[in-house]
Amino acid sequence: MNKPFERPTWDEYFMLQAELAKLRSNCITRQVGAVIVREHRQIATGYNGTPPGVTNCYEGGCKRCILRSEGKLQSGEGLDRCICNHAEANAIMNCAILGVGSGTKDTTLYTTFATCLECSKMAITIGIRRIVCLASYPETDFNLLKEAGIQIDTLDKKKMQYWINILLEDTTMNLIPTN
User: For the chain, what percentages of helix, strand and coil (3-state, to nearest 5) are there?
Assistant: First the structure.
C-alpha cells in the first residue's frame, strides 16, 4: 500500500525553520527561534542569546538568567537586566544588517513564543502584519498587536511534533546520505 503524499503547510514549514533556529540559542532559561517571511520566502532568522562578542548566557554571561534559573526571579521579572537579545529582535536586526529594511513591509513573523512588548513594538514598526507562534509569552500585549492590525495565529504543537517525527522516523525519506 502506498503512503499518501503529504507535506507541511507554509505555516508549518516556516515554524519548523523557527524550531531549528532555536537550537542555536545560548539562553539558559528559554530557547526561542524566529523567522521573518515575505511571499513564502525566508528573509531573516534569529534566536535568543547574548550579543556577539559577549560571554554566552550558558557560560554565565547574563546575570538575570542565572537568577531566573535559580528561582530567584519569575518569568517576565527583571527584563531590563537581561542582556540576551530576543529571537524576534535578532531576526529584525538581521534585516537591518543585511539591508532588507524596506522589504519587511507586510511580512509574517514565525516565532516559537508570542512576542514580548519590546519585540511587538519592533514588529509593528518594520511592517510585520502577521505573527504565527506556538505558545504565548507572559509579556505579550495582544491589545497593542490588535490595535496595530497584526493578525496573531497559534499553530497546533501536535502537528509540529508530527512533522518532526516524520523527519526523524520516516525510513522512506533519505534525509541523511548513506555511504
Answer: 40, 15, 45
Spell out where the chain has E strands. 33-38, 41-47, 107-111, 128-133, 151-154
Active site (catalytic) residues: 88
Q: For 8-23, how does the pLDDT look when each residue is reduced to its tens digit (9 = 90+)?
A: 999 999 999 999 999 9
- pLDDT by residue (tens digit) across 94-139? 999 988 877 888 999 999 999 999 999 999 999 999 999 999 888 8
What pLDDT is stored for residue 164 in this prediction? Answer: 92
Angle at 14 between CA 84 and CA 142, to 5 degrees: 60
Which pLDDT score is estimated for 175?
53
Q: What is this structure's pTM? A: 0.89
CA 122 vs. chain centroid, Å, equals: 14
Give the three cell numbers for residue 164.
518532526
**CA distance linking residue 163 with residue 32, whole number of Å:** 19
CA 102 remoteness from chain centre: 21
Q: What is the Cα–Cα distance from 47 to 86, expressed in whole angstroms?
A: 7
CB 91 within 8 A of CB 34: yes
State the pLDDT at residue 179: 54
**CA atoms of 88 and 115, how far apart (whole Å):** 7
